[in-house]
Design a protein that fits this description.
290 residues; alpha/beta; four-stranded parallel β-sheet
């Protein structure tokens, strides 16, 4: 069996329960600023999801920054010294400069450790969408898939991860410049819960404008019914930004329409939550309608 380790970043929003009985994945923490105070989210960090959403609900705004090359080197190098190769599954280049910094570090380390192999993969995914790809990579590693075959599989299948999500509020989208003041005002007045997805370039785009969360959940169910490909994996993730009641409603709907789905609910962490605010509800699955 090839001797390699899989890395990802805190954007993937995976918890220890989801990774139980799978090979260890190294999750690199990411910087988040809330109300002018700098935090670190992820393993060894000082920002918890519940505290993050409490601060946002009290009126604070948040921003994020890419992992810097020195941080990547600090995490990657011990693995290389131990004689292991690296696969790094990175937050989408369509939303962050994180990939560029990872490539800088990987280039330097390849010169220092020419006998080792480092592959940086742009997942073109975000949040639990990135997480569902990381989970499948770990599963295939556990099954004995070689380094080369796994990197090829990931690149061939990353665009089969479907992201469909809604946001409850417009203030954080407005603060981050993702909507105009006029769009935010109209959306709030009309109770619009914009349906967004991550496109083939790993960027966010608005696909529809349902009114109210019940209509948005019905729309999410229609998307998964149309495109789900359980032959890849029956794993389905529901991500929520401090709205567990709606996450449970979506889970119940999926259980009714697709009873064979293996559904888990996860928190949307601060890396994406900084831009969407409380109330984000995301549906992630393997499918044909990316």
């Amino acid at each position: 069996m090839d001797n390699y380790r899989i890395f990802s970043d805190a954007t993937c929003d995976l918890n220890s329960g989801l990774m139980q009985d799978l090979p260890e994945i190294v999750i690199i923490p990411m910087p988040v600023t809330v109300g002018g105070t700098d935090y670190l989210y992820g393993d060894g960090g000082n920002l918890e999801v519940n505290d993050f959403y409490k601060m946002l609900s009290s009126g604070e705004f948040a921003s994020t920054a890419a992992i810097n090359p020195d941080t990547y080197t600090r995490y990657f190098e011990p693995c290389l010294i131990a004689g292991m190769d690296i696969i790094y599954l990175c937050f989408s280049s369509g939303m962050s400069s994180t990939l560029q910094n990872a490539m800088i570090s990987a280039g330097d380390l390849r010169e220092k450790y020419p006998e080792r192999t480092i592959t940086v993969i742009d997942t073109l995914c975000a949040a639990p969408g990135e997480g569902i790809l990381v989970m499948e990579a770990a599963k295939k590693q556990a099954e004995g898939m070689s380094y080369r075959n796994l990197t090829e599989w990931l690149c061939d299948n990353r665009l089969r991860v479907c992201h469909w999500f809604t946001v409850d509020r417009f203030d954080h989208l407005l603060h981050g410049g993702r909507v105009t003041a006029a769009e935010a005002f109209a959306g709030s007045v009309l109770n619009i819960k914009p349906m967004l997805h991550v496109d083939a370039d790993g960027k966010l785009s608005v696909m529809a404008k349902p009114r109210g969360y019940k209509q948005s959940i019905r729309m999410q169910i229609e998307y998964i019914k149309q495109g789900w490909q359980p032959q890849i994996s029956k794993r389905v993730l529901i991500g929520h930004g401090d709205c567990i009641d709606r996450a449970n409603l979506l889970r119940d709907e999926i259980a009714e329409h697709l009873p064979e789905a293996d559904v888990s609910i996860v928190d949307i962490g601060p890396v994406i939550g900084a831009h969407t605010g409380p109330g984000m509800l995301a549906l992630l699955y393997w499918g044909s309608n990316r």
